Amino acid sequence: MNNHLLLHRQQPGLYRIILLLAISATVHCTTGGSDTRDWWQNTVFYQIYPRSFMDSDGDGVGDLRGITSKLQHLADAGIGATWLSPIFRSPMVDFGYDIADYTAIQPEYGTMEDFDGMMLEANRLGIRIVLDFVPNHSSDQCEWFQRSVAREVGYDDFYVWHDGLVNPDGGDPLPPNNWQSVFYGSAWTFHPQRGQFYLHQFTKEQPDLNFRNPAVVQQMDDVMRFWLGKGVAGFRIDAVNHLFEVEDFLDEPLTGTDLDPLSYGYTHHYYTKDLPEAYEMVYHWRSLLDQWTQEHGGPMRIMMTEAYANISFTMKYYRSADGIRAGSHMPFNFLLITDLNQASSAPDFVFTINKWLTYMPRDQNANWVVGNHDQHRVGSRFGKERIDLISVLLMTLPGIAVTYYGEEIGMVDYKDIPWEDTKDPTARNTNNQVYMDFSRDPERTPFQWDDSTNAGFSTAVKTWLPINPNYLQLNLKNQKQAEKSHYKTYQQLVKLRQHETLQRGTIQLIPYNEEVVTFVRELPDRDSFAIVLNLSPREQPVDLSIFAHLSEQLTVVVASSSSSFTTGDLVRRDELLIGPYDALVLQEE
Fold it and tell me: At 86, phi and psi to the nearest 5?
């Protein structure tokens, strides 16, 4: 890692030294280097949460026909691909992440014919469809689990079972160890019919599949092939670092920082996540995808992996240590979510971005995720005034951008959902006094299309989650009609990303001061771009001559919607005065 990055974290007061080192030791990163880029390498991926995107039949729940009817919105915004949160048949305990049938559509969302219709429309618009794939666990209503409970031949060890420990008091057996569920409480539940405990790293209705059983691996391979045959462009692999646990079921060591033995933070998860076998499974699935592409032709089928993990662990998903086996095309980069917030300084931003680019293998592709269905929205984490600023950052960094639905119009969390309307199981497991500290519902509310009833999402009397009442002002229709808006800024940025410099160029980042982030994107024989982000509520004078190769005169090509600058304005490199929370993209003349 570069010395200036370490110095910033160890001695943040030595800012001038940091700045000098940053100028002389800036990370330079290409995003692959080749003139020929595959479809996924610089596109914008857009996550759709199906329940909340568009309701076509008036039941208050979003569905596939609703998605199909609104794919034009993605095309208009310049989106190249979308990944759908789970659409498979499910009891909906965890809203689709508890799958009962991996090759059937959840009836609330429609039918397989509806899915096929969605694929046809997506293909017509040039939008790739990626499916959320949940291999770590199924629903307890899944036929596989029912057969495993009954100890049917071929399914006996499809899941992780254990006799438990002898109770010294002579009562019921005790859980095998101190492993805890991510969602609170023991990760073990006793099943009276089978007479054993089963492992569930999430809710008790989500039993963990046993990936040490080759039959389970084969079953999941078959599921992948089924959906590839339906035309999907790839998969986002959920909770991939939870796939394996140690075979000897050792107690996990205590963290010493959490006093609640039922809390997930009570132990270090050395034996239940980030095991070497998880990476091997990813390499196996990459081989399957590559083989499918080779045999069937067409665009490369891709894999995105979700793992909240140490960055050194995350990088292993790209490829094997010997470089022979390819892995995930996109090990999700959550650093802009986990490491930055409203209080972060410009050096914090530069450090965090450089952290990923420094650790990432040079021949791989960076990706940047700023939101998803488990995280507070951008405007709620960074402040509403920084919504465009984060969009500018996301769209001008090298590599792949991932947008959560609604971020393009600046939707924010709806924090006033009452207890009786709360759906998230993590919140429902608490009580009506503290539930909002745990709920993910605020970032899952329906998309705000217009100012009509239910924000144009549904004709139902009641929607599955309440609509944020700010929809009367904050909606797509209003932003399309406005001269400046979050949506129009986002649309400009997505279009600008097609420029070769932003697709293939190097990046040089400098924290201009504690409150202003600056960086340039450069490519030989192409125009360069300078990006200036003012994190503060104050005007800031900026001298971009710190970047030696920039022209003296620059053109504003994108400005945040609240900025006094407009597209086409000419500015001098060394005499730039930017307004509060301004975000500018400047192009060399």
Answer: -50, 135
Structure-token pair, residue 202 = 């999430």
Q: Strands 506-511, 302-305: parallel, antiparallel or unpaired by DSSP? A: unpaired
Active site residues: 238, 306
Q: Is residue 514 part of a domain?
A: yes
| pLDDT tens figures, 25-60 | 455 554 444 456 799 998 999 999 999 999 999 999
- Helix 3-10 / helix 346-359 crossing angle, nearest 10 deg: 140
Distance CA 91, CA 141 (A): 8
How many C-beta atoms lie closer than 10 Å to residue 15's C-beta? 16
- Cα angle: 79, vertex 84, 85; to 5 degrees: 140
Bridge partner residues of 401 (DSSP): 44, 368
Name the 3-class secondary structure at 382: coil
For residue 84, which phi and psi values (nearest 5 degrees)? -95, 130
Which CATH number covers residue 534? 2.60.40.1180
Q: Does residue 23 sit within a domain?
A: yes
DSSP 3-state of 76:
helix
Reference 307, options 280, 330, 336, 323; nearest CA is 330
Sheet with 188-191, strands from edge to edge, namely 161-162, 196-199, 188-191
* 383 phi, psi to nearest 5 deg: 100, 140
Backbone φ and ψ for 122, nearest 5 degrees, come out as -60, -45
Residue 192: both structure tokens together: 């009276």
Give how far Cα 536 sits from Cα of 344, 388, 438, Å. Answer: 11, 14, 29
Domain assignment present for residue 33? The answer is no
Backbone angles phi, psi at 198, to 5 degrees: -115, 150
Q: How many domains would you assign to the chain?
A: 1
Say if CB 535 and CB 517 are below 8 A apart. yes
CA atoms of 190 and 168, how far apart (whole Å): 17
Burial class (CB in 10 A: 0-12, 13-18, 19+), 525: exposed
Give which of 324, 327, 325, 351 is closest to 340, Cα–Cα.
351
- The model's pLDDT over 396-455, given as tens digits with 9 standing for 90+, comes to 999 999 999 999 999 999 999 999 999 999 899 889 999 999 999 999 999 999 999 999
- Residue 224 · residue 151 · CB < 8 Å: no
For tokens 């999402």, what's the residue? 457
For the chain, the C-alpha Rg in angstroms (whole number) is: 25
What whole-number distance in Å separates Cα of residue 487 and Cα of residue 80?
Answer: 16
Question: Bridge partners of 532?
Answer: 518, 584
Is residue 128, in this structure, part of any structural domain at all? no
Query: Can you tell me the distance from the alpha carbon of 379 to that of 388, in angstroms, rounded to the nearest whole number?
Result: 9
Q: Which residue has the tokens 């490369």?
A: 300
- Residue 533 sits in which domain range? 3-28+503-588
Q: For the sheet containing 506-511, what is the strand order?
A: 506-511, 516-522, 529-534, 583-588, 553-559, 570-572
